[in-house]
């Protein structure tokens, strides 16, 4: 059988692309190398309690907001179970012992932050107006947002986020608070573009939500849509080669030798790994080298806690704690005093009780710290790796005690992951948390098109320009518009709204 489109990888970008193409009548096949679909949408349970592996909250799902409108096209907005976070504090920034609230709604955000910085209210309003202006460029004409003309004319693609924030206020504390969610994009001062900061912050300030029962709820909805549309999803089906024929891709080769033929191929796999899959003369060496030499964002260490019953409250907000002067953790990262930052949250379940039974804490970790085990696989890394993880878990717990004294007494059991875990589960080089690092200094090189140099090979997912729920949704729409036609896709989106 020959498919209209084969999608390699079942992360959000792959599933959305498959859902859209199958909805438009194409015969699609999703190939997933693991036993579970979803990529960073995956969840798991320990002792019956829920943990996310990637997505811990989403934004702009209120009526008339961008992700809500996009999800309406897919039929997701009406079905995805959500819980809105605290409207007066969806993220708490704890910096130098003081707490600062990120509130939902632009005016509410300004009011709450101005209570802490009354002399800076005008600066805060100007900052908010600027991120609104940048994010306003993402609408149903978004397929043009990364065009050559847009990139050359929009200064926010070449303007570092750190400079954008520094230029917004002279108050050094306020600068750190405005940068307080930079862990959502692993920001690098002087490198990460202002548009990344603006899009992500505006996305959550509009409205912030948790997916009830975790990201796998979204993966299941998309899987059901694909199969209802006549599409197929195959698990434990690893693609090991993409072979050429007559100037374009002819078929994919699976582990074991099976060949799968298609008119088009969409890769939701990291671009540097995608180009390695292509065999023959399909891609020139300069193109391959350009993609393979792009920098990637830092990795993470994640601590998963099963909590004792009635021992720790459910928190309807996220906690971002900084035990340092500089909130830009990629700049101040020091293995000797690790960790000095964490993002903490409690997942939400159906009929969420007053007390949480699971808690997740995330901090940065460089790949170099686990490189000695890079040739091992999950559950086969040895006792020294387990000892390493346990030492880091205890260090992170010690830092958490500064905010929640006695939290260890609330812990029934704990588990952890490192950049190697993410590398092996999501096929991401060096366990990079957000894939390719967008670079304001050389933005044309770090911006990738959905089209490749092979006419029937396309890219999708977090590495195509913007990561996160909104970015990947836009990426999948951009990819599909290359196949279905931009005007056709825009009309479909407008009709759905």
Structure explained in plain terms:
Among the domains are: 196 residues, 3-Layer(bba) Sandwich (FAD/NAD(P)-binding domain); 100 residues, Guanine Nucleotide Dissociation Inhibitor, domain 1 (Orthogonal Bundle). A hairpin with a 2-residue loop joins strand 3 and strand 4. Helices cover 34% and strands 20% of the residues. The protein has 497 residues and is α/β, with parallel strands linked by helices. Strands 1, 2, 10, 11, 12, 13 and 19 form a 7-stranded mixed β-sheet that branches. Strands 8-7-15-16-17-14-18 form a 7-stranded mixed β-sheet. Helix 1 runs parallel beside helix 16, helix 3 packs antiparallel against helix 4 and helix 4 packs across helix 8. The chain has 17 helices and 19 strands.
Compact summary:
This protein has helices spanning 12-23, 66-74, 106-116, 121-135, 148-153, 161-166, 172-178, 194-206, 216-228, 271-277, 285-292, 329-332, 383-400, 419-426, 443-446, 468-484, 486-496, and strands spanning 2-8, 28-31, 43-46, 49-52, 58-59, 82-84, 91-95, 98-102, 208-211, 232-234, 239-245, 248-254, 259-267, 299-307, 318-322, 341-345, 358-365, 411-417, 457-459.
Please describe the biggest sheet, giving its number of strands, its sense, and whether it closes into a barrel.
7 strands, mixed
CATH class division of one domain? Alpha Beta
> Could you tell me the radius of gyration in angstroms?
22 Å
Give the CATH architecture of one domain: 3-Layer(bba) Sandwich
How many strand units? 19
Separation of the first and last Cα atoms = 36 Å
Q: What is the molecular shape?
A: globular
Mean pLDDT level:
92
Poorly predicted ranges (pLDDT <50, ≥5 residues)?
A: none
Our count of helices gives 17
Q: How much beta, percentage-wise?
A: 15-25%
Structural class call reads alpha/beta
What is the CATH superfamily classification of one domain? FAD/NAD(P)-binding domain
């Amino acid at each position: 059988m020959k498919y209209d489109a084969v999608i390699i990888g079942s992360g959000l970008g792959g599933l959305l692309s498959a859902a859209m193409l199958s909805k438009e009548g194409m015969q699609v096949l999703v190939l997933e190398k693991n036993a579970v679909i979803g990529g960073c949408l995956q969840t798991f349970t320990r002792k019956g309690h829920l943990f996310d592996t990637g997505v811990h909250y989403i934004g702009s799902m209120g009526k008339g907001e961008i992700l809500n409108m996009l999800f309406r096209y897919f039929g997701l907005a009406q079905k995805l179970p959500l819980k809105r976070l605290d409207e007066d504090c969806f993220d708490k920034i704890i910096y130098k012992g003081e707490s600062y609230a990120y509130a939902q709604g632009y005016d509410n955000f300004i009011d709450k932050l101005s209570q802490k910085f009354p002399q800076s209210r005008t600066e805060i309003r100007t900052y908010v107006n600027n991120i609104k202006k940048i994010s306003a460029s993402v609408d149903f004409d978004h397929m043009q947002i990364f065009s050559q003309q847009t990139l050359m004319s929009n200064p926010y693609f070449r303007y570092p986020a750190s400079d954008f924030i520094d230029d917004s206020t002279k108050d050094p504390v306020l600068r750190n608070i405005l940068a307080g969610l930079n862990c959502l994009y692993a920001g690098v001062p002087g490198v990460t573009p202002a548009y990344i900061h603006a899009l992500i912050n505006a996305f959550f300030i509009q409205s912030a939500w948790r997916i009830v029962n975790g990201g796998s709820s979204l993966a299941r909805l998309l899987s059901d849509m694909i199969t209802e549309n006549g599409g197929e999803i195959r698990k434990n089906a690893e693609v090991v080669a993409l072979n050429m024929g007559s100037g374009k891709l002819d078929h994919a080769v699976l582990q074991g030798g099976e060949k799968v033929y298609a008119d088009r191929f969409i890769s939701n796999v990291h671009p540097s790994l995608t180009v390695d899959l292509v065999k023959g003369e399909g891609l020139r060496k300069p193109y391959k080298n350009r993609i393979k030499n792009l920098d990637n964002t830092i990795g993470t260490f994640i601590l998963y806690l099963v909590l004792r019953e009635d021992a720790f409250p459910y928190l309807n907000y996220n906690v971002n704690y900084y035990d340092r002067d500089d909130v830009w953790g990629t700049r101040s990262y020091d293995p000797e005093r690790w960790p000095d930052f964490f993002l903490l949250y409690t997942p939400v379940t159906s009929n969420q009780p007053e007390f949480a039974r699971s808690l997740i804490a995330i901090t940065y970790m460089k790949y170099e710290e686990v490189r000695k085990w890079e040739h091992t696989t999950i559950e086969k890394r040895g006792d020294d790796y387990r000892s390493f993880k346990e030492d880091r878990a205890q260090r992170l717990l010690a830092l958490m005690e500064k905010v929640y004294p006695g939290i260890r007494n609330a812990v029934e059991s704990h588990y952890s992951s490192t950049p190697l875990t993410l590398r092996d589960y999501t096929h991401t080089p060096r366990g990079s948390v957000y894939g390719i690092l967008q670079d304001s200094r050389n933005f044309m090189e770090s911006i990738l098109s959905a089209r490749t140099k092979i006419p029937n090979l396309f890219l999708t997912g977090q590495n195509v320009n913007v990561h996160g729920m909104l970015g990947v949704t836009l990426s999948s729409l951009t990819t599909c518009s290359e196949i279905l036609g931009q005007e056709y896709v825009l009309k479909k989106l407008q009709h759905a709204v």
